[in-house]
Design brief:
By secondary structure, this protein is α+β, with helices and mostly antiparallel strands. The protein is about 30% helix and about 40% strand.
């Protein structure tokens, strides 16, 4: 079975200078599909991911470049550059 999801990874610092990583994903098409995707992404990234509205997603692309795509096929994970 093949799963895939676009994401944008952003590295910032907290107010006290500690490194902080945020993972953003586009809005899901359905509640249950989004919940399953969230659990899958959380298990891979080992942290919560943030769901970006359409407007925020476009802003993230403008500021941080094209999203990457996480692909899992037969238990093997690959990260690819988006062709969009």
């Amino acid at each position: 079975m093949k799963k895939e999801c676009e994401f944008i990874e952003v590295f910032n610092k907290t107010a006290i200078g500690k490194p902080h990583r945020s993972i953003f994903v586009p809005s899901p098409e359905s509640f249950f599909g989004g919940w399953a995707r969230h659990q899958w992404l959380k298990s891979y990234f080992k942290q919560e991911c943030s769901i970006a509205s359409s407007a925020l997603w476009q802003t993230l692309i403008e500021r941080h470049g094209s999203p990457k795509i996480l692909i899992e096929q037969d238990g093997v994970f690959t990260i690819m550059e988006s062709t969009k």
